[in-house]
Automatic annotation (TrEMBL):
Belongs to the neocarzinostatin family. This is Neocarzinostatin apoprotein domain-containing protein. Residues 1-27 form the signal peptide. GO terms for molecular function: DNA binding. GO terms for biological process: defense response to bacterium. Keywords: Antibiotic, Antimicrobial, Disulfide bond, DNA-binding, Membrane, Signal, Transmembrane, Transmembrane helix. The lineage of its organism: Bacteria, Bacillati, Actinomycetota, Actinomycetes, Mycobacteriales. The keyword Amino-acid biosynthesis does not apply. The keyword Signal applies.
């Protein structure tokens, strides 16, 4: 019995090492925004994205802090949700392909310094892992001479809701899957100890 456990452990360790050390066959995801330099608050940035793993589900694109540790590190209401197609190209779930930039994300002033915020790509299967990102360089507030258009609160709420529902549902579904996996592991471990 001990020999079987040791052999199984060695096989698993070897397989893990081979997978971890193997060169990646797929190219890194490439995010191509319409503009990243001299951007302004309220500006809509068009994006295209490819190089994702084929058929990758629940891929979010949005304005985020450079490091993501919590959902609040990204502008969730302004993020876009989509899936990768069979060739690894990102397709929006609602057809939208523009992210509207905000002044702050997760308590960070995006206009304070170049790269203070980014356009980032994450998968809701692992939201803390940034698949790729592009730093944003905002113009200074004094340099901005065109005022942002005024929008009533009803229209603003309708605009921000357009892609938000799918994102919230995706995050909730990912949490349920993770909790289910943890519960399954706990039950399996209890059965083995009896």
């Amino acid at each position: 019995m001990k020999t079987l456990a040791v052999s199984t452990g060695l096989v698993c360790a070897t397989a893990t090492a081979l997978v971890a050390l193997a060169p990646s066959a797929a190219a890194a995801p490439e995010l191509r925004p319409s503009q990243t330099d001299k951007v302004t608050v309220g500006q809509a940035i068009s994006i295209s994205l490819d190089g994702l793993p084929p058929n990758m589900p629940q891929v979010a694109v949005g304005q985020c802090k450079p490091q993501i540790t919590t959902p609040g590190d990204c502008n969730l209401t302004g993020s876009l949700l989509g899936n990768a197609d069979a060739q690894g190209a990102w397709r929006s779930l609602n057809g939208a392909t523009s992210v509207t930039l905000t002044a702050t994300v997760g308590g960070v002033d995006c206009t304070a310094a170049p790269g203070a915020c980014t356009l980032a790509v994450t998968s809701l299967m692992n939201p803390a892992q940034i698949l790729t990102s592009v730093p944003l360089n905002f113009t200074s507030a004094a340099a901005t001479t065109t005022p942002a258009p005024v929008q009533d609160s009803t229209a603003a709420a309708e605009d921000s809701d357009s892609g938000n529902t799918a994102l919230v549902i995706g995050i909730a579904a990912a949490a349920v899957v993770v909790l289910g996996a943890i519960a399954g592991l706990i039950l399996a471990r209890r059965r083995r100890t009896r």
